[in-house]
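Tokens as discussed.
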């Protein structure tokens, strides 16, 4: 069934080299680049996945961005979690429809958008962030995604509650199903996580260095062994491949190390 792109929608144009350009469709505008001009008018009304030509004859694929493609192009304030890790996080933290999830900090909102989709319309994402400027960037990224990307799934996504708060100072929300920490010193929040995560709930921490994971594991073992069971520590390695005629091989470049994913489960302390 045809599903044409509309005025006000965000789409990506992809050229023959795979470069993508993000545009917000506005009938009075045009997109100009070194291979010519394309007026938005010629794109509005085309089916998702159509091909358009610039006035210089250069061809572009018109597509509605996936969340991963949107994240790649959105404005970033902080370092984001890469889509390859977000995919694993959703599974390892078992983010389920209807869940109440707390994350800290919100950063640029990359993980938040995936969480909002995964918890669904009956779920809730509570995001703590201590820096105002990141809150603003994240809100803007999240609103733009759900308001202008047709396939974002706004109606089926969860409620977002954003709090300008330092998670090291406390978590006022209780009986949480999941807590996801993407910040430098997750061990400083363990006491609050212990109080706020429900029994059986999952704590997931994302950290780039092994020293952070070591310190987190040690702290958990020394002070919180009664309340948490470590379920695993993971790293996601994703290598792209390319096909060029008879040459089929891995791409030369890859995003190698990004971060470690640390997963623990809250248990009721033994008396
Ligand atoms: C690496 S970024 C998070 C990126 C985010 N997960 C994303 O995918 O876009 C870390 C964020 O945590 C915030 N942060 C650091 N310590 C915090 C704390 N104690 N409480 C709340 N937010 C904190 C930082 O300001 C920053 O925005």
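Sequence:
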């Amino acid at each position: 069934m045809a599903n044409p792109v509309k005025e006000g929608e965000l789409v990506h144009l992809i050229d023959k080299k795979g470069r993508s350009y993000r545009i917000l469709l506005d009938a009075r505008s045009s997109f100009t680049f070194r291979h010519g001009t394309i007026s938005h008018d010629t794109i509005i009304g085309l089916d998702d996945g159509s091909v358009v030509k610039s006035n210089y004859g250069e061809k572009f694929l018109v597509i509605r961005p996936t969340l991963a493609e949107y994240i790649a192009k959105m404005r970033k304030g902080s370092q984001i979690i890469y889509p390859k890790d977000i995919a694993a996080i959703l599974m390892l933290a078992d983010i389920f429809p209807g869940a109440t999830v707390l994350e800290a900090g919100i950063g640029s909102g990359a993980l938040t958008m995936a969480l909002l989709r995964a918890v669904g319309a009956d779920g809730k994402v509570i995001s703590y962030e201590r820096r105002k400027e990141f809150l603003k960037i994240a809100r803007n990224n999240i609103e733009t995604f759900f308001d202008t990307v047709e396939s974002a799934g706004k109606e089926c996504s969860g409620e977002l509650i954003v709090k300008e708060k330092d998670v090291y100072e406390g978590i006022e929300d209780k009986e949480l199903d999941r807590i996801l920490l993407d910040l430098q010193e997750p061990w400083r929040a363990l006491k609050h996580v212990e109080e706020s995560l429900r029994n059986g709930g999952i704590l997931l921490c994302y950290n780039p260095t092994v020293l952070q994971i070591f310190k987190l594991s040690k702290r958990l073992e020394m002070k919180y062994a009664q309340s948490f069971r470590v379920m695993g520590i993971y790293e996601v390695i994703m290598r792209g491949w390319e096909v060029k005629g008879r040459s089929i091989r891995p791409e030369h470049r890859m995003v190698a190390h990004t971060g470690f994913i640390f997963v623990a489960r809250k248990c009721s302390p033994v008396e």
